[in-house]
Design a protein that fits this description.
With 277 residues, the protein is α/β, with parallel strands linked by helices. It has a 5-stranded mixed beta sheet with strand order 3-2-1-4-5, sandwiched between helices. The radius of gyration is 23 Å and the shape is globular.
């Protein structure tokens, strides 16, 4: 068997599987099929101009699955996007991130929630600031708030904490203690916020001072929000921004492919987890 495998230039395990009928035949690929993919690719890139080829592949395969069609390989999508000049332009400079060894990811939902603030300017100079709560496992945004030309207060944080618990559990208290990881912002470290968090089943945890990467999960979402939503949306004023923000968060939860979730959206991942539980 070894001699035959070496002669054919294949692994012995592959040859054994073929002889035993344990391998599935590879789907035949015809270049003519590319013509049907190009309009879909073009439309998706126009709708999601900040998405790279892997996220575009995830969206295409989600649609093909709904239509009962076979999925496409990410290499094929890359090639088509390259031919039709749909790939993202590489960044001009290489980003150097500070080293962080802290553990943020957890093994199941509702073990650790993270929170952070975001800020962006509208075209007329209005400043929109907000905060959110995200699950460190399934990455769903559980609650958020936003204000205009003002700072996020402790009261705002307490409101989204209660909203997150009510949305996730349908009750005013978590059934088991959940770590609540934040930076050292005044709204988070306020005594009223810490006491309230414990009352609803959350255990406040804080990152080291001057170490925002210790809350990397929340920091990553802020980057996603600014790149995939804020930067591609018309924002003439704060009123427009406040109308758009709910749709951004809903789209992220329901549709945004996440590399840490095997290119599924947070709610797609949650549904898959529930189906196998």
């Amino acid at each position: 068997m070894t001699t035959i495998a070496r002669t054919l230039g294949v692994a012995r395990s592959t040859l054994t599987d073929r002889l035993a009928g344990r391998t599935r035949p590879r789907r035949r690929y015809h270049k003519a099929q590319d013509a049907g993919l190009v309009p879909i690719l073009t439309a998706l890139v126009a709708e999601r101009p900040t998405y790279g080829y892997r996220r575009i592949t995830a969206l295409i395969n989600r649609k093909l699955k709904e239509d009962g069609a076979a999925p496409v390989n990410h290499k094929r999508v890359y090639r088509l996007m390259q031919v039709h000049k749909l790939l993202l332009t590489p960044a001009a400079t290489e980003r150097v991130d500070p080293v962080h060894d802290g553990k943020v990811i957890v093994m199941r939902s509702n073990l650790r929630w993270c929170s952070d603030g975001f800020e962006f300017a509208c075209w007329n100079g209005d400043i929109v600031r907000g905060a959110f709560v995200i699950d460190a496992h399934d990455r769903e945004i559980l609650a958020w708030c936003a204000v205009v030309n003002a700072g996020i207060s402790g009261s705002d944080i307490r409101d989204i904490l209660l909203e997150a618990v009510e949305r996730r559990f349908g009750a005013c208290r978590a059934p088991e203690t959940i770590e609540f990881l934040t930076d050292n912002g005044s709204a988070y470290i306020a005594r009223e916020t810490r006491v309230f968090a414990r009352q609803i089943g959350l255990k406040p945890c804080f990152t080291p001072v001057k170490s925002p990467q210790s809350n990397g999960m929340a920091e990553a979402f802020v980057n996603t929000l600014k790149r995939d939503y804020v930067s591609v949306s018309p924002l003439p004023d704060a009123e427009t921004a406040l109308r758009l923000i709910p749709g951004w968060f809903e789209d992220y939860n329901e549709n945004h492919p996440h590399s840490g979730l095997r290119m599924r959206s947070p709610r797609e991942f949650i549904r898959a987890q529930s189906a196998t539980a």
